[in-house]
């Protein structure tokens, strides 16, 4: 089993749903402490970016909510109605303990993106899509789920952006005039690892 201090060293080489679920199940107990020790700031950056363009009364679906760090950042930015879903039950147990979610559920890639608690005025996928995590197909599923006038805040870290397909997917969405790029900001992700990320906000046309 991976020891607590080593999880981040192995997080970006995962491949497949089962390996990803097992890895994050093992990491759930120490996840918050390890990423905090490395200065994890992307949740706060994403929440601030969304709050700059969206009414905080809008209900938010926090996709890949993990232990709830993203939901806590959204709540701190003023969003009051937040639902969360995640692949890993052990992570969701931690998320429920934060008290910021109206409801949570275990998501399954085979079942598609569940939005039964909606409609949602915003969707977040904070540190979720990319290397060692959810595939690019989740990005496309979220785009298809969005209602007109709704927002999508997400981040791609340096490891993810090494694959040009991710930036190309954003460009394709905006080029098709189905979504507008409201903001794009490159900044700190895990300063303790000298890693950065780009935070994006899209609006459904």
What features would you describe in this structure?
- With 205 residues, the chain is an alpha/beta fold.
- The chain contains nine helices and seven strands, in the order H-H-H-H-E-H-E-H-E-E-H-E-H-H-E-E.
- The protein has helices at residues 7-10, 17-27, 31-37, 42-51, 69-76, 89-98, 136-145, 158-161, 164-175, and strands at 60-63, 82-86, 103-106, 122-125, 151-157, 179-190, 195-204.
- It has a seven-stranded mixed β-sheet, with helices on both faces.
- The longest helix is centred in the last third of the chain and has 12 residues, at 164-175.
- 41% of the residues are buried.
- Residues 1-5 have low confidence and may be disordered.
In short:
With 205 residues, the protein is of the alpha/beta class. Helix content is 37%, strand content 22%. It has a 7-stranded mixed β-sheet, with helices on both faces.
